[in-house]
Design brief:
Helices cover 51% and strands 4% of the residues. It has helices spanning 8-19, 25-44, 55-69, 73-92, 111-117, 122-135, 140-151, 155-160, 199-212, 235-245, 281-294, 299-306, 310-317, 322-333, and strands at 166-167, 172-175, 193-196, 227-228, 231-232. Helix 1 runs antiparallel to helix 2 (25-44), helix 6 (122-135) runs antiparallel to helix 7 and helix 7 (140-151) packs across helix 11 (281-294). Pfam families: Phage_integrase.
């Protein structure tokens, strides 16, 4: 195969032009941002023809990106996974050697690091919700994912909601600790509260209740908001929904791991958790908390809504880099 010379900026613009018709705006913006670092690196290294990229050069970029970005392992993995998709696309236009994308290395993340750092990125959440709105509107999976992301609630809290806990006029949800009927809240009575929900969330809930929710009660005679034909939705079902819908290929993205969906083990029924990109419910909560903090929502408001102390947010949830925090403080201080 003969490679066709192409400079980094031209390749980038062609790639973005193709993606504009196939991914959500937030995903496109994320790709622009992440690949912008590659353009900077190529300029620093005087790389004017991407034909010259090699596995060694890609590893040099990885180390450079890690050093200039104050990245967590998870953020570094996200960066490199996007790069892998871009390199695979370059192969399709004869810009780099075939299978070069397989040489893009990502950091290994231990289970302990996973539990501390893994989160659903905001652009991925938006792409997932866009997909669900278009193809599975007001389905149980759509409602479940919408609540997990927009409310920052724990899985057990989402499962605990009853029909009567939703007030469409006040646009609110009431959280109640009811251990005697199998729906405890983690913080017990201290976890009880009323939270506001947006028009977007209400539209999904209204359509679910009116058109698709099975009219059933649970084993205690309560009417669960999230119900199946057999009663209240189970935690295993919520967990399965999260693993299923966070596979990139499920919501219209290219596989960042170079897999073919036709023979990928994660594409098999109930095997979605085997996808390296799929996540359980808790990363929805961590990602949502970080997203609201990045959006300049006061930490006190996030703490009250998510029912978690500010110290715990700092220790376990807030994935902003020190530089991000500094820039947010600057925006406030510059107004003084």
């Amino acid at each position: 195969m003969k490679l066709e010379p192409i400079d980094p900026d031209t390749a980038f613009e062609l790639y973005i032009a193709e993606k504009e018709t196939s991914v959500a705006d937030a995903t496109l913006a994320a790709h622009r941002s992440r690949l912008g670092f590659l353009l900077d690196w190529c300029e620093e290294r005087n790389i004017e023809n991407l034909n010259n990229l090699t596995g060694r050069k890609l590893q040099e970029f990885r180390l450079w990106r890690r050093n200039v970005g104050d990245l967590t392992k998870v953020s570094e993995k996200t960066q490199m996974d996007t790069l892998r998709v871009f390199i695979k696309w370059l192969e399709s236009i004869d810009a780099v050697e075939q299978d070069l994308h397989k040489k893009v290395r990502s950091p290994d993340v231990t289970p302990e690091e996973n539990s501390r750092d893994v989160m659903l990125e905001a652009d991925d959440a938006e792409a997932i919700l866009t997909y669900l709105k278009r193809y599975e509107h007001a389905s149980l999976r759509h409602v479940t994912v919408t609540l997990l992301w927009h409310t920052m609630l724990r899985m057990g809290s989402v499962r605990a909601l009853d029909i009567e806990d939703y007030d469409p006029e006040e646009q609110s949800l009431t959280l109640r600790h009811q251990p005697e009927t199998d729906t405890p809240l983690k913080n017990k009575r201290q976890g009880e509260r009323i939270i506001a929900v947006s028009n977007e969330v209400c539209l999904v809930l209204d359509d679910w209740i009116r058109e698709k929710r099975p009219d059933v009660t649970d084993d205690y005679g309560r009417e669960p908001l999230l119900s199946t034909n057999h009663g209240r939705v189970g935690k295993a079902t919520i967990r399965t929904y999260c693993y299923q819908i966070t596979r990139p290929c499920k919501y219209g993205q290219e596989c960042p791991h170079g897999r073919d969906e036709s023979d990928c083990e994660a594409a098999e029924l109930n095997s979605s958790s085997k996808c390296p990109s799929s996540v359980s419910p808790h990363p929805f909560r961590r990602g949502a908390i970080t997203h609201f903090l990045q959006s300049d929502v006061p930490e006190t408001a996030v703490s009250d809504r998510a029912n978690v102390t500010k110290d715990i947010i700092d220790q376990h949830y807030d994935q902003r880099s020190q530089k991000e925090k500094m820039e947010q403080r600057r925006r406030y201080l510059d107004k003084v």
